[in-house]
Amino acid sequence: MAARVLRPLPRPKPFNRLQVILQHLKMSKQTDSTAEVLLEKKGGAGIITLNRPKALNALNLSMIRQIYPQIKAWEKDPETLLIIIKGTGGKAFCAGGDIRAITDAGKVGNKLAQDFFKEEYTLNNAIGTCKKPYVALIDGITMGGGVGLSVHGHFRVATEKTVFAMPETAIGLFPDVGGGYFLPRLSGKIGYYLALTGFRLKGRDVLKAGIATHFVESEKLPALEKDLIALKSSSTENIAELLNSYHMKSRVDQEKDFVLDEHMEKINRLFSANSMEEIVKNLKQDGSPFAIEQLETINKMSPTSLKLTLRQLREGASMSLQDVLTMEYRLSQACLRGPDFYEGVRAVLIDRDQSPRWKPPALEEVTDEFVDDCFKPLGSNDLKL
Q: Model pTM?
């Protein structure tokens, strides 16, 4: 009798495997207050709570692997009418991705660095294509990965505590998580300005820039959440009506002008160039205090990141979200191959000396050939959405 050849069973795909595990757990650990992310169903609402307050709710791979299958399950569930996402701790919605873990993995060639970006962008796409109304309560710091968890959904509710920024060019990265899709679609050149300088928008300004859809006082969020949970039918119109009613009653900073109002003419003119060198030239020629300040900021950023970012936004302006995320995955892998990402994280997050030594150190030394190379398809390693 011939010996039977034992073939290894195919490994289940991570998301399917997780769905099975979640079903086994029957959501039991989801209400455990020590879990990094809480997933619960209240009334007609599926509620995602980012629960790493000490880490400002930074997003890690295990959180992504819990949130993605849950969004997909709620999307199919006729009893889930809408999805709400929020953060705990009162300081942050989500301050970004777990960059330290990614750099540690990238340095030693660990697959986590690829998996993180691949699965994070797959989650961003799931939010962007979600068939159920998706409401992000962006109370507190909302940067990087936190932007990806909120900006692609139907509704983004900012409060007076919201601090929005895409500061990636300062750490040798680029404004990813679909930044190439939503930033160039903001009015004028404001998205380019935010992407290249990492400028922080606060409170009502996040709404005025077109990033948030509504503004509600932070202390009113529990009442708003209760009303969202109580909705008997939740068409996007119903939810918009409820959010509008809270928005109309919010008085905080109502009289204040948009922080960038007085500079918008300059931003639109100076940041509309075709290359980073031209933007720098424009700022130098303008010579106003505002232009000089932007020049000083840009000079601190990774020259490679600046060039990748400008092209990312220019190309992303006419691409679908899926194509943008595929492009950004290619860029993420290019950044993991080069020195600036590790150096930026060292200077800003590890040693905190704030003096990164970029390679190359000048814009002129980042060649078009090098930039082209970063955008090239990765064949079988490409992100598939």
A: 0.90
